[in-house]
Design the sequence.
């Protein structure tokens, strides 16, 4: 939910979806994303849709769960009217912002709302993101008891200097404590890292990776820092206070991550995600790459149902106002035509380890695969088995690969 | 103090004794147009309410830059001591590129006002035109302008002018074109000092063309000075260089709007309209006579304008190529000196190789194409004409580095110019350094007054066309002025340096340079391109070579990362739009072999603008 909202068609006020979305819906997984747009401080690199108390302009953090529950009701009605079959949620993901700024009871109420309106599938994956300094054993135990299965900690780095540049307030010493608490509560653990922060050396990065593997999390995400326009970080770089992250160093860091995580038993399953075993892959995350259906609840949240994408208004106060009027909180939407869907499919599926079926490509794209193998960007054996799977180098140049496949 | 003439003399029946033909020689921005405007006002040919600044400069570019590209003539009535005169003011182009046009304008006059800014003193181009005027035996009236400026130092510059043309500083008139101060005295002096025209009224008609202008509504308007005989309406006229005959549709004088007349007699200045649509049929310097009673001998001094500087002009958007062709075809109608032919470049696509009289001419044409025709253009580095003799004794004329023959070269000859640089004496050292670094040979140095110096050099024209003027200006804080004139050819040790991208030659960057400078050029261009071309998925060597010999080398390291780490919370739309943007960007790339080069990189490298280092995407 970073950056400006895309330009697109206006969304109808009642949120109604075209009949086309019901086609093949029975075969598509359904998930729910719940956005919690609050933080205690805004980190300098962050352009996500989140607000500190002073930025809220009247929208209340305390009322948020109730507002989100109202959108869940709205969602159930829209999907039913569109003729979609009842599909229990396979995955539920609370992201932010900082979901754990809300009392555990609020998260539980929202999850219960999903359960009431859609049902929760047997063995569903239910995750919340958490800030290492905003949770404790009791909090996590309450979530686990309510059905949460997974917690993803925004660790970012083990090096205090790097955390300071990112404006992260937590103490790296908190990580082992909260990981142990999550384990005790019976939750799967994921640790999120950011690399390529200005001033971060390859040795700093190694320290962070080693700190992660020492905790034996089930899942690791490692994201290259993106300097987004309009953030304080971007301003500090422009003014020369900080050095811009170098692509070459970020490439070295990615390779080091893949190497160290690989040795520690983790395998990549998406460009920026590694899991200790196939069952620990984030199914919610994969649903984005596989073109599944999901409803995104909350300000600025994105949704996708059967080839229609839409996104909600960004400000919590505007959002709450629309919900109170029983209107769709969507700000814009787009209906994908066949060729756009194909482009998206190539764009998304090439990023995952199982890859993209070569059959899905148009003739030029299929021809381009040979060149990509020759250039060492695509795995030749996988291609012979009919799939485009990126090599390590190909993962670092994934956007270039996609351009060649859809040119 | 002279009053305005109460009745003007009638054209076609004005005795030569009552005619004064003169021009104004001045540097850009020394106030020639403002003075001319004031004369129009004082003589009453333009009503005060119709006065607009720089009345005579018709084109926007001229008005904005304050320079005159196309000369025109204005007939003004003036009375002195009870006698009425017809004053013909012939406006001359002020720049060195138009030396030939200037010389023809001067040939149409008996006298010249030498106009100099009282705060700046004479400049190199004015000096050059003054030489031309003296060469034509013109009576010179020295005038200091802008004496109302606080910075004016008329005593100093009057002494300078007197030193140049002889006479006393007291003879130098002091005027202000802005306030009108001294302009009436100046008009009186024109009458007193400038000789009246001489000619044989009974001889076959001979009129010299000193300008020809294309007008959208009327076709070509030809400005002439009658030397002998007369011309009348409805007569059939003949151009003596081509023998072409045209019907004279209209004949008249500008005052300053065109006024048809019963004809033009000896010594008069006016215009002709024949209905031709192309200025090439009415060439500056040519002689007009009548078809019924043609003159046997043309007036001396006619030459075809010869391009000195060549450059490739390319539309930035390849789709604009037909528009560029159309625009050039139109400009050609009004600019006999412009010539062009189609050319293609790997780096820049389809364009035209154009020949210009000089650098300003190039600049003016490019700017007119951009402004009047709305085209976005890139010009390749200017080049001059080389005569290359190969070992088998063949001689090739090269106006474009791509025409430079391969194989063994026996000799290369290049055009040489005489250069005059005028500057305050403090800059002599730095100017000499610059001229010497451009293979200049010092001819002489003269003090003009106490603190200004004229340096004279011979220099290869090729050394001047590149960025000499920019360097000269920046090293002298803008104080130096430059003039040059052709001075033959010389043999020199010149080589062609090619620039190769992954082994593929990039034609737009080939250059003909002196062997001693080949290495520096190679290093400059390879470094520039290294900084401008985005990284590719493979390493790209950039080399500079003379023939097969590599003289400089850089390389662009392979790009290692081109992937977005994540899609924010399922915002796939944003990522797809980014991809679409990247795909669009790719379409605009020029392919040199396997290397994708953004057009902007070529443009920046050609213009020397290396600030815009392109990152990927």
Sequence:
């Amino acid at each position: 939910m970073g950056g400006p909202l895309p330009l697109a068609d206006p969304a109808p006020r009642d949120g109604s979806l075209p009949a086309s979305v019901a086609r093949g819906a029975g075969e598509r997984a359904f998930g729910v994303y719940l956005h919690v747009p609050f933080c205690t401080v805004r980190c300098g690199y962050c352009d996500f849709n989140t607000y500190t108390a002073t930025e809220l302009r009247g929208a209340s953090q305390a009322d948020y769960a109730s507002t989100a529950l109202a959108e869940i009701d709205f969602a159930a009605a829209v999907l039913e009217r569109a003729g979609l079959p009842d599909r229990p949620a396979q995955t539920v993901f609370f992201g932010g912002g900082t979901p754990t700024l809300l009392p555990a009871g609020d998260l539980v109420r929202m999850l219960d709302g999903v359960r009431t309106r859609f049902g929760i599938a047997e063995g569903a994956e239910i995750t919340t993101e958490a800030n290492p300094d905003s949770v404790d054993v009791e909090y996590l135990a309450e979530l686990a008891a309510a059905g949460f299965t997974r917690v993803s900690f925004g660790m970012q780095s083990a090096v205090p200097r790097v955390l300071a540049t990112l404006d992260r307030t937590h103490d790296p010493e908190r990580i082992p404590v909260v990981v142990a608490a999550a384990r005790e509560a019976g939750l799967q653990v994921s640790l999120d890292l950011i690399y390529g922060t200005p001033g971060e050396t390859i040795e700093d990065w190694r320290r962070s990776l080693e700190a992660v593997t020492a905790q034996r999390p089930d899942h690791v995400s490692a994201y290259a820092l993106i300097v987004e326009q309009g953030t304080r970080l971007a301003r500090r770089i422009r003014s020369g206070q900080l050095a811009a992250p170098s692509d070459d160093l970020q490439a070295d860091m990615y390779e080091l991550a893949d190497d160290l995580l690989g040795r520690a038993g983790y395998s990549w399953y998406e460009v920026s995600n590694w899991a200790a075993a196939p069952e620990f892959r984030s199914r919610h995350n994969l649903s984005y790459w596989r073109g599944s259906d999901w409803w995104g609840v909350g300000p600025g949240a994105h949704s996708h149902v059967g080839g229609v994408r839409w996104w909600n208004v960004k400000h919590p106060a505007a959002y709450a106002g629309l919900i109170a009027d029983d209107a769709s909180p969507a700000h814009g939407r787009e209906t994908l035509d066949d060729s756009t869907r194909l482009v998206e499919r190539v764009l998304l599926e090439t990023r995952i380890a199982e890859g993209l079926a070569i059959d899905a490509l148009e003739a030029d794209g299929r021809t381009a695969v040979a060149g990509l193998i020759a250039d060492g960007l695509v795995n030749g054996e996988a291609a012979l088995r009919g799939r485009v799977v990126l090599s390590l180098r190909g993962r670092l140049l994934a956007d270039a690969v996609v351009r060649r496949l859809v040119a | 103090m002279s009053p305005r003439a109460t009745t003007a003399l009638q054209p076609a029946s004005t005795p030569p004794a009552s005619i004064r033909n003169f021009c104004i020689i001045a540097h850009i921005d020394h106030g020639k147009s403002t003075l001319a405007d004031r004369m129009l006002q004082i003589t009453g040919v333009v009503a005060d309410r119709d006065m607009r600044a720089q009345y005579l400069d018709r084109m926007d570019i001229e008005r904005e830059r304050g320079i005159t590209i196309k000369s025109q003539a204005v007939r003004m009535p003036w009375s002195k001591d009870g006698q009425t005169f017809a004053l013909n003011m012939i406006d001359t182009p002020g720049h060195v590129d138009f030396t030939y046009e200037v010389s023809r304008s001067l040939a149409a006059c008996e006298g010249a006002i030498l106009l100099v800014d009282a705060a700046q003193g004479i400049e190199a181009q004015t000096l050059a035109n003054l030489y031309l005027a003296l060469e034509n035996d013109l009576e010179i009236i020295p005038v200091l302008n802008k004496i109302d400026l606080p910075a004016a130092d008329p005593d100093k510059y009057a002494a300078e002018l007197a030193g140049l043309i002889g006479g006393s500083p007291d003879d130098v008139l002091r005027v202000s074109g802005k306030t009108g101060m001294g302009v009436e005295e100046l008009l009186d002096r024109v009458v007193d000092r400038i000789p009246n025209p001489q000619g044989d009224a009974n001889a076959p008609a001979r009129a010299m063309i000193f300008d020809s202008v294309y007008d959208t509504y009327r076709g070509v308007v030809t400005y002439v000075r009658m030397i002998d005989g007369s011309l009348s309406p409805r007569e059939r006229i003949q151009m003596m260089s081509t023998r072409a005959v045209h019907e004279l549709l209209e004949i008249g004088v500008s005052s300053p709007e065109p006024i048809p007349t019963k004809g033009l007699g000896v010594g008069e200045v006016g215009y002709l309209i024949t209905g031709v649509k192309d200025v090439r049929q009415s060439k500056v310097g040519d002689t007009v006579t009548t078809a019924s009673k043609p003159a046997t001998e043309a007036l001396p001094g006619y030459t075809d304008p010869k391009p000195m500087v060549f450059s490739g002009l390319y539309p930035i958007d390849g789709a604009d190529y037909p528009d560029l062709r159309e625009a050039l075809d139109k400009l050609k109608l009004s600019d006999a000196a412009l010539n062009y032919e189609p050319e293609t470049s790997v780096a820049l696509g389809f364009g035209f190789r154009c020949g210009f009289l000089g650098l300003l001419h190039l600049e003016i044409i490019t700017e007119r194409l951009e402004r009047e025709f709305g085209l976005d253009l890139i010009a390749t580095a200017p080049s001059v004409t080389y005569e290359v003799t190969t070992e088998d004794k063949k001689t090739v004329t090269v106006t474009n580095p791509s025409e430079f023959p391969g194989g063994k070269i026996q000799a290369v000859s290049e055009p040489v110019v005489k250069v005059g640089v005028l500057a305050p004496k403090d800059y002599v050292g730095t100017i000499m350094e610059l001229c010497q670094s451009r293979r200049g040979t010092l001819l002489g140095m003269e003090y003009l007054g106490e603190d200004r110096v004229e340096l004279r050099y011979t220099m290869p024209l090729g050394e001047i066309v590149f960025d000499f003027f920019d360097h000269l200006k920046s090293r002298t804080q803008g104080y130096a002025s430059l003039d040059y004139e052709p001075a033959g050819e010389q043999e020199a040790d010149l080589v062609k340096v090619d620039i190769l991208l992954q082994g593929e030659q990039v034609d737009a960057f080939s250059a003909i340079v002196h062997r001693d400078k080949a290495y520096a050029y190679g290093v400059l261009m390879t470094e520039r391109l290294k900084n401008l071309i985005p990284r590719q998925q493979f390493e790209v060597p950039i080399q500079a070579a003379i023939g097969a010999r590599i003289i400089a080398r850089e390389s662009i390291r392979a790009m290692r990362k081109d992937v977005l780490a994540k899609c924010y919370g399922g915002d796939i739309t944003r990522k797809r739009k980014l991809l679409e943007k990247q795909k669009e960007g790719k379409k605009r790339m020029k392919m040199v072999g396997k290397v994708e080069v953004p057009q902007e990189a070529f443009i920046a490298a050609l213009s020397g603008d290396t600030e815009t280092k392109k990152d990927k995407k």
